[in-house]
Amino acid sequence: MFQLDDKFLADVGMDELPEEQKKAFLQHIYDELELRVGTKLSDGMSDAQLEEFESIIDRKDEAVTAWLTQHAPDYHTDEAFGRIQQATGLDPNDPGLRAEYAATKWLEVNRPDYREVVSSVLGELKTEIINNRDKLLGTDQAAA
Fold first, then answer.
1. What angle do CA 82, 85, 87 make, to 5 degrees?
2. How buried is 121 (Cβ within 10 angstroms: 0-12 exposed, 13-18 middle, 19+ buried)?
C-alpha cells in the first residue's frame, strides 16, 4: 500500500534530515497517520463497532476468534491471510497473525473505503510536510 521509508522522505523533501533523525521522524509520521486515519474511520461507526474493532486490534483472542468464526471461518485459505503471513514471517497459527488478518478483514467488511481513507490522509500529511519543509528542517529564513 505505502511505505514510510527513504523514498517517502525524498518525496516530501525531507531526505536532508540527519540520519539519526530519519527514523524518529518516520515513526512520528506513522503515529500521526495512524491517529488521523483512526479518527476518520471511526466517524459514523457505532459504539459496538468501535468496541469490536478495539478488541481485535488489542489482540484479545476471544474477540478475534469470535469474529473470524462468524465472518471468515476459512480465513487460513484466504490469499490475504497468506500475504500477511508471508510479510510477517509468523507461523500460520500465531495469534498475532490471526489478529492482524482479522483487523484487516474487519475494515474490509465495516469500512470498505479504508484504503481510500489511508491514501487521502497520507496525501494530506505529505502536503503538510512539504508546505512546512523549511520549518521542519530548520532552514526557514523567515524565522531568522
1. 110
2. buried
Are 121 and 45 in contact by the 8 Å Cβ rule? The answer is: no
pLDDT reported for residue 139: 78
Looking at residue 3, what is its pLDDT? 81
Length of the chain: 144
Q: Which long-range contacts (CB under 8 A, 24 or more apart) does 61-69 make?
A: 61/95, 61/99, 64/95, 64/98, 64/99, 64/102, 65/98, 67/102, 67/106, 68/98, 68/101, 68/102, 68/105
Q: What is the rounded CA–CA span in Å between residue 100 and residue 94?
A: 10
- What's the pLDDT score for residue 1? 55
Q: Give domain limits for the chain.
A: 49-138
- Mean pLDDT split into 10-residue runs, the chain, 144 residues: 84 90 92 92 92 95 96 94 93 94 94 94 95 85 52
pLDDT at 144: 47
Rounded Cα distance between 36 and 38, Å, is 5
What H or E segment, with its residue span, contains residue 131?
helix 114-131
What residue has cell string 476471544? 62
